[in-house]
Amino acid sequence: xxxxxxxxxxxxxxxxxxxxxxxxxxxxxxxxxxxxxxxxxxxxxxxxxxxxxxxxxxxxxxxxxxxxxxxxxxxxxxxxxxxxxxxxxxxxxxxxxxxxxxxxxxxxxxxxxxxxxxxxxxxxxxxxxxxxxxxxxxxxxxxxxxxxxxxxxxxxxxxxxxxxxxxxxxxxxxxxxxxxxxxxxxxxxxxxxxxxxxxxxxxxxxxxxxxxxxxxxxxxxxxxxxxxxxxxxxxxxxxxxxxxxxxxxxxxxxxxxxxxxxxxxxxxxxxxxxxxxxxxxxxxxxxxxxxxxxxxxxxxxxxxxxxxxxxxxxxxxxxxxxxxxxxxxxxxxxxxxxxxxxxxxxxxxxxxxxxxxxxxxxxxxxxxxxxxxxxxxxxxxxxxxxxxxxxxxxxxxxxxxxxxxxxxxxxxxxxxxxxxxxxxxxxxxxxxxxxxxxxxxxxxxxxxxxxxxxxxxxxxxxxxxxxxxxxxxxxxxxxxxxxxxxxxxxxxxxxxxxxxxxxxxxxxxxxxxxxxxxxxxxxxxxxxxxxxxxxxxxxxxxxxxxxxxxxxxxxxxxxxxxxxxxxxxxxxxxxxxxxxxxxxxxxxxxxxxxxxxxxxxxxxxxxxxxxxxxxxxxxxxxxxxxxxxxxxxxxxxxxxxxxxxxxxxxxxxxxxxxxxxxxxxxxxxxxxxxxxx
Length: 677
Ligand SMILES: Nc1ncnc2c1ncn2[C@@H]1O[C@H](COP(=O)(O)OP(=O)(O)OP(=O)(O)O)[C@@H](O)[C@H]1O
Ligand SMILES: [K+]
Ligand SMILES: [Mg+2]
What we know:
- The protein is an alpha+beta fold.
- It folds into four domains: 12-94 and 204-280 and 560-674, no CATH class; 124-191, Calcium-transporting ATPase, cytoplasmic transduction domain A, CATH 2.70.150.10; 287-309 and 447-548, HAD superfamily/HAD-like (Rossmann fold); 317-443, 3-Layer(aba) Sandwich (Calcium-transporting ATPase, cytoplasmic domain N).
- It is 52% helix and 17% strand.
- It contains 24 helices and 20 strands.
- The strands form three sheets. Strands 1, 2, 3, 4, 5, 6 and 7 form a seven-stranded antiparallel beta sheet that branches.
- The longest helix is centred in the last third of the chain and has 41 residues, at 555-595.
- The chain starts with a helix and ends with a helix.
- It binds adenosine-5'-triphosphate (ATP), potassium ion (K) and magnesium ion (MG).
């Protein structure tokens, strides 16, 4: 689907379909949703009636002129419909390619000890299925046993396989992707019709598109302007008649259409749809247009350390004794504490043992009670059958646990911990009852290019805060290496929410990226929550955006697109309203010259004739819509600048440009139109 995403703005089939849709959208039931263009449509109908039944309206015989006005008005409406249809069409094309991945898959459902082959559509939440090498994953779910490499290119467009494994933050799998090695047991987590791909299709098809708050506010402004101009124009006729000037209805309608904000009114919906579309092109799924818009206003960004700023596969690289413990003894207890620890950290300890040919008595774990890792306690381990308690975990957590039992802390623990942490590693202490035996050195690397990206964010005026469960030394090292503005160490899940709430209470909009189940509450609390596709189902469900490439720094692109969306809307509104000035100078003098030919002095723009002046203004008003479609769809160019500088820059380009362009445009059109009139 990636080739679909990068396709050009206007392709043959897309344009044909959009042309057809522009006609269908003339249906008043649809038009009324866009009040500005609805007013234009009504005007079009009135002029049509006057053209077809000229005598009935007792107007002068201007059938040719009226016909021309009718045609231009009709095209004005069609152009607006075309813009919207084109934007929608691009979304539908994406949905089409997604639907291809959503085929019927046969699943090996586990029923007790036997396997039953059922179609994927019959799978329900909670069902357990086995997927082996070469098979498609029949639905969204979590790996509960085993490890496999999975080809997710159907949804991410990324061909490199990803490892999915039970436990930890890499256990979620998506229906429609393929297992390319090994075999997993998984639990289905979504009902039919509610899978990730189903939701993606609904989203890109725009089925659930709702107007965003900013869009509603702008719409209200546009409607108010339309009503004001409607009143002005409707009262103008009688007032002019009172002083003996006869203004004709088609001329008044032309005036009205030129004055109401048709440019932005016609492009507004396309701008919104295209904004969502651009996010999708970056392989990010936004669950609502509102989220994309909020991204444009973000002040603060909260990032998880492990897996977000770093690669996140924390691997044991050293196991060292502390105090009086021996090296083998420390390693053995590290291994025993990890026997049932399915997290990448836990498994890496056992791998380290194998790699270094270290032996340990695994039978010690038999009959013991496994204590899974919890972000809350920051420990994991096992309660042995003989009563001994084995733990590994964050050094502070283990210290507290040992002291609570009346144990002693080895003298060299602090120094050794600091060494590991200052190198950016994560130290895990190993303890049995009240004795600390050693330290595991978990290594992780900062993703490349992070510093540049955080610099960009700073230029946009966005503050970055790294939140980690790790100790302050590790946090400080990684924070420095990655170049974040601030960090919070030893944070528990509720601390992340607290930071977000604190920022929000100051009136700031907060974005957060994360992948773990413990990130889910914070992802939900944030204004923009970007979950990694590699993350857990809980994280993806709580977030309002999912990055299919699992690249948390993608939040920068999302923010740029959000800003671009807001700016595009603002720029085109400014342009649309600034346009009015020139149209005043073209149309109002023409109207009065038509009634009182002696008022030739009013013709400041030196237009050919009153009728050609009106038609020229109307033609300019119509063709500016298709001319701006590329800008509406691609968005105005965004540069990381402060809000104030962006505003003044845009006012200059779109405000001044919007005032000057129509003078030139109308003059040029008039020169051509005047040849006939
Ligand atoms: N399997 C494990 N067993 C014991 N302790 C662990 C395990 N995994 C992590 N820890 C400890 O718990 C701390 C918190 O881990 P967690 O993954 O919850 O961090 P976090 O809040 O997600 O932040 P980040 O992922 O950015 O480090 C880690 O810094 C580490 O000290
Ligand atoms: K207009
Ligand atoms: Mg984490």
